[in-house]
Amino acid sequence: MLRQKDMIAEHFRELARAKESGRKVVYTFVPGNLTELLLAFDCLPVHPEINALQSGMRKLSGEYIAEAERHGHSEDVCTYVKCDIGMLLKGNIGPTGEKLPEPDLLLLSYTGCFTFMKWFELLRERYKCPVAMLHVPYQADGTLEPSMIEYVVEQLRRELIPKLEQITGKRYDEGRLAGFLAASARAEEDLVWVLESAKHRPSPIDAYFGGVYYIGPLFTAFRGTQAAIEYYRELREEVAERMRRGLGPVTPEGELEDERFRLVVEGPPNWTHFREFWKMFYDERAVVVASTYTKVGGTYDRGFRHDPNRPLETLAEYCLGCYTNLNLPSRVEMIARYVKEYAADGFLVNSVKSCNSFSAGQLPMLRRIEELTGVPGAFIETDLVDPRYFSAANVKNRLESYFQMLAQRAPAARAEALAP
Amino acid sequence: MKVYVGIDLGSTTTKSVVLDERGELLGRGITNSRSNYDVACQIARSEALLDARFRLFQRGFDDCGAAPELAAALLERLRREFRRTQHLRLLAELEAICRVHAEHLGAGRSGPVVVALDEIFAALGLEADRLFRGTARPRSDFFRDIAGATYASEAERIARRGAVDHDTLLGVYDKSILQLEGKPSESLLEDQLLRAFELAGEGSDLAPATRARIEREVRRTIELPLVEAQVVGTGYGRARLPFARECIRSEILCHGLGAHATFPGTRTVLDIGGQDTKAIQVDERGLVTAFQMNDRCAAGCGRYLGYIADEMGLGLHELGPLALCGKRPVRINSTCTVFAGAELRDRLAMGHRREDILAGLHRAIMLRAMSLLARSGGVRREFTFTGGVANNAAAVAALRALVRENYGIEEINISPGSIFTGALGAALFALRAEHGEDATAHAENQTCGARA
Fold first, then answer.
1. How far apart (Å, rounded) are the C-alpha atoms in residues B374 and B292?
2. A391 and B296 in contact by Cβ < 8 A?
């Protein structure tokens, strides 16, 4: 945790110095991010949605959203967008208190979220800077066809790389890119190990609330860096030690002992009441053993690793495989598999009020997963960073009811299992 | 004797159910939740325990060999006398509080407000006799509503004479009733019951010997300690209850179990309370398998009806019957309570009839409930409707039509005591806690009691 804090602080210091150091700044999003490519051009990435969630956690998002609404953005618009726009309007001060540099390029890797496109249109208007759009085909049939990879690689080769060369004045160096990709793969290996440690009973980690911290470096600016390799090695050692000693996850309320419920969660956490939300699980001794949110920046546990031998193809495959780019049956399959492989007692859908593209279809998904697993699901609705949409009493009420339902079910389920 | 208590601390009303050791219903109590949950909880609980004593009187009377109709008449008189003495006691307390507020308004004891209060409380006293001794029936179970309605109409009448302002008088009531409701009762129940029995017995046709036996039975029952072996709390305010964690159950589970106990064939439950709508699926043991609740917005719940009633200047109980008279329901689109109020005024202005608008409103509520039911897994046979809104005939009619259209199911289970379903479930959990066993086994034996 401390190491991660240092890494982030250093990154924002670099960003604040970008104009002096001459490094180019690229705004881009987590799903389908091309960090290694940016590093190969010595660019510094900024992730607006990460800034938004950081603002949410630091209780600033309400104010930023209000600012965006004063400028005419509707109440129903994605709150990440409004939070980011509001932050911009209020001086663009980043999460560490330093001013963020303006972008030299807006790089949109389109992986399933239509709003991202509109978001960058708004930023383009403001910053008057170039935009590069990488169109990643949606995995509508749940398969990744070679033609899709070729299509993305073509765009990388013909549009994105020339644009990066133009902006940075540097030549594309594939050998350098391959070096970063090899480093990514090493960190990815350790991240997967950490996430899968939750199969152990008791789980040494919380793969949702804690998972957010574990995915942090790899999903943002640090994939392909030495710092990430070290971070994940250390994390893996720590988790292995907890597992060896039979310890539960670390939470803000202390260590979670005597794990009572094992859950799978779909959807991002609420950021404005992150700790309060987590405590509702902690109080019930519920551990999240797997989550889909920790796959939005890459589905590494499905076997994908960045491959230095096929640099552009591997980036294309990475973008295509992000959780946000998967169709509903693939999402269902993934959650159902988690329920089984992680021996979960239940699963929860945390639906995001202001995210239509991701929330659509979540109820039918829930039903289907129930059918496939025989495990009951729960459904709650909160929001990303709009504090007005987190009704603590309601959420707690739903969760308590759900946990009591699982507890009530447990003896019955055991009896059924024992029946001849 | 050991009793098991369930308390459902709802957003609008607080309910309590008392069961005996066999899981049979002994008593039920209800009060408005007011701003003080602790007091509401205490009152609902003591009401249920009191109701339990009446049920025990009845059991005792049956054993005394009294003719059933005479015993029943005596019990009814006893109940009404007791209600009357309680009502009069509350009136006296309310009057004292009102006078303190009135005197603060100036001119001391001879001020116009104090003089007006003399008149108002005289009328309230007469009304109590009419309600509890005559043939009239109180329009509500709550002192606040009964006294409030008469107070308001008397205040209006007096204000028309010009000596004192209507709003001032209502202000005194509003302040005083809140204060009264926040105050726990102090008088001794035993004394009140005995006094009520004396009054009820006057003019009874029972033979002296039987009457003596009954009187002994009444004294024995009054003195019988009711020991609360286990208490389980549920409902919105459950976190406020001073109970151990294991004595608090989610209202989803309680409603599921309560509905199953009342109608054992239940598979789907719809509960519409003050601010919650719950769609619950249960298995053959009453165990919840899936549920959905309204998120973020409580339009379409009981409070919504309360708001609409206020908007139309009607009592909550008048809404349903009026809506049933609607011939051509007017379509109401708003999902927001406040906007629905505006839409309602708009429709009135356009010349639509009140009953048609109300019929439309009831349908709008049920459309929202249907969506929640669908989300929870649909409606399966048997379908049980619970919560305060289940007492509204127009709501039931709208629901019936929609369930028929969408699921082809005709029958809806509704118990007259449906508002107590959550508290019944909680009481069953209390029984289970005592016996350290699965509540569902007991639930199979509850049906008769709960249907009363």
1. 9
2. yes
CB B236 to CB A397 under 8 A? Answer: yes
Residues from chain A that touch B250, judged by Cβ atoms under 8 A, are 397, 400-401, 404-405
- Domain boundaries, position B98: 83-181
The CATH number linked to A115 is 3.40.50.11890
- Smallest CA-to-CA distance from B176 within B91, B87, B86, B94 is with B94
Q: Rounded CA gap, A69 and A77, in Å?
A: 9
* Chain A residues 335-354 with a CB less than 8 Å from chain B: 353
**pTM of the model as a whole:** 0.83
The DSSP bridge partners found for residue B292 are B279
Q: β-strands B13-19, B25-32: how paired?
A: antiparallel
Residues of B whose CB is below 8 A from A374? none
Residues paired with residue B434 on neighbouring β-strands, in sequence order? none
Q: Where are the beta strands (DSSP E) in A34-83?
A: 44-46
Q: Parallel, antiparallel, or unpaired: how do β-strands A346-352 and B13-19 relate? A: unpaired
Instruction: Please report whether residue B259 resides in a domain.
Output: no
Q: Same domain for B64 and B212?
A: yes
Among partner residues B249, B289, B296, which is closest to A404 by beta-carbon distance? B249
Same domain, B410 and B281: yes
Query: Which residue, among A396, A401, A406, would best test binding to B if mutated, counting the most B CBs under 10 Å from its CB?
Result: A401
**Which of B250, B287, B438 lies closest to A400 in CB terms?**
B250
Question: Do B447 and B266 form a contact (C-beta atoms < 8 A)?
Answer: no
Residue B99 sits in the same domain as residue B217: no
pLDDT by residue for chain A (420 residues), tens digit each? 778 888 998 999 999 999 999 999 999 999 999 999 999 999 999 999 999 999 999 999 999 999 999 999 988 889 999 999 999 999 999 888 889 999 999 999 999 888 999 999 999 999 999 999 999 999 999 999 999 999 999 999 999 999 999 999 999 999 999 999 999 999 999 999 999 999 999 999 999 999 999 999 999 999 999 999 999 999 999 999 999 999 999 999 999 999 999 999 999 999 999 999 999 999 999 999 999 999 999 999 999 999 999 999 999 999 999 999 999 999 999 999 999 999 999 999 999 988 888 888 999 999 999 999 999 999 998 999 999 888 888 899 899 999 999 998 876 665 655 555
The CA distance from B146 to B128, in Å, is 9
Contact with chain B for residue A400, Cβ under 8 A: yes
- Examine residue B302 and state whether it is found in any structural domain, yes or no: yes
Residue A169, burial from CB neighbour count under 10 angstroms (0-12, 13-18, 19+): exposed
